[in-house]
Structures are given as structure tokens and as C-alpha cells.
Write a structure and sequence with these properties.
The protein has helices at about 1-15, 15-30, 35-40, 45-50, 70-75, 115-125, 150-155, 160-170, 190-200, 220-230, and strands at about 60-65, 80-85, 90-95, 100-105, 130-140, 170-180, 185, 210, 215, 235-240, 250-260. A hairpin with a 2-residue loop joins strand 6 (about 170-180) and strand 7 (about 185). The radius of gyration is 19 Å and the shape is globular. It contains ten helices and eleven strands. By secondary structure, it is an alpha+beta fold. Helix 1 (about 1-15) crosses helix 2 (about 15-30), helix 1 (about 1-15) runs parallel beside helix 3 (about 35-40) and helix 2 (about 15-30) crosses helix 3 (about 35-40).
Length: about 270
Amino acid sequence: DAVLLDAINSRFFSGAKDTLEKVQRAYDLLTDFAEVLKLCENGIDAIKHVSLIPGRPTNVMLAVKVLDIDEAFEVCGKPCAFEHKYDGFRVLISSDGKSIHVFTRRLEDVTKQFPDIVLFAKEHVKAKKFIIDAEAVGYDFKTGKYLPFESVSQRIKRKYDIEELAKKLPVELNVFDVLYLDGDSVVELPFIERRRLVERIIEEVPKKIRLATQIITSDEKEAEKFYKDALKIGEEGVMIKNLNSVYVAGRYVGTMAKLKPVVADLDLVII
């Protein structure tokens, strides 16, 4: 991707760094090299006003890693939002007003594999056109206990017996952000305002759809307790977010961080 974007920028804008950022932004929102290429043919002004298109995939915002609560505050400032980091898989749920699509963070269309997510969005998101960012977490349909990502990942590639598998491996949506709402891109709004929009449009239903668990704090002890409590109930860790940050698709930005227990990396060779 980087090579193609660099080539497009060099072809039309002499490889300047500031134009590369604009070309990158256009691709992150459109995720279509051909479309970006056509826009660049019409000059830099053509890509300045690119916006999200409901019903199509877009790159998600990515978080940097931090090692402790102090570093989290250094990255995201005080006060900031702490949210549970769920052991599921990232999904963008996009509605163009006629149909609802479910995309993974790798831009895969998994709408057919997750008819339950489509139903949750249709019945419990109070908007016609939207793009929401969420984590789908699997749970045991008998006990209600949440399951690790590996348990539900088999649904992502499933082509047959989808309805049956959806009953055996149901998912719950944990919504934490919104990118587009009823005709307007909201990625430029501060995170705290986007969170209020999420709270307004999501009708919470246990084991179907809910808001990501969140606190806003400047206190290290309160943040540390929130982190430890998340780990106790089986969550991966916590996400930390700058309250005034915009949504930057496709980037590891310095306004959102993730904290989870450090696991030693192993460099292995398959033999």
C-alpha cells in the first residue's frame, strides 16, 4: 500500500510530504487505489474534500502501545477516557440507509457471516445512515460467559451453515465510536463529542449491543483500579483516548493508546 501511495504522489505531486499525507488520507477514507488515482489526476483540490461513503469499508484508527498508566496519561493527556479493551474482533458497521454492511479492520466484507450483527444494528441503532466502530465479542450461548477471540474467529471465514453457527457462537457488540451519522462525517469532532453521539444513537440490549464501558479521569489510582478490574473480568486490558482527538483513519496516532499485560515475544522458525 505504501509503495502505491508513494508512486501516486510522485506521479502527480512530485513526491512532496504534505501532499503524501493528503493522498494517504484519501485512501484511508475510500480504500480504493483506482478512485484515489482518478482524483489525483484532477489536482490536489480534488482530494482535499474526500469524505466517508456509507456502505463502503474504511480504514480504522489504530492505537499505540503503552506500558503503564503513567505513560498512558503522557500520551493522551489529563483527563482522558479509559475503556475496556475487549477480546473480540474489530468491526465497522456501515449503513447507507438501504442496507447494512459489516467490515473487519482488514476491509473484509463479513456481512453474510454475521446476520446477527446486521440485525442488532438495524433494530438498536437509532439512525438511518451511519458508520460505527465496535468490537464483536463472542460468548457461550449456554452460560453467557465471554469467550476469547479464537472461539469466534471461525465465524469470519464461514460460508455454510451460518445461521446455525451464529446460534452456537453468538456475539455481543461493544460500540465505542462513530464516524458518520445521517449525512455528516463526524471524524473531525472531538472524541468526547463523538462518544455523546454514540450514547444518543445506541439502544443498549444485554448480549446484543452496548456501549463500551468507560470512565473519564485524571487520577492514576482510579485508572489503575479500572485497568485491574477489567483484567479480573477477563478483558484484554484498556484503551486510553484523548478527549479532544479527531478520528484519524488508518493511523497509529498519538491520541489513542492501549494497555495490556506484557507478554514476552518469541522469534520462532517453522521447521
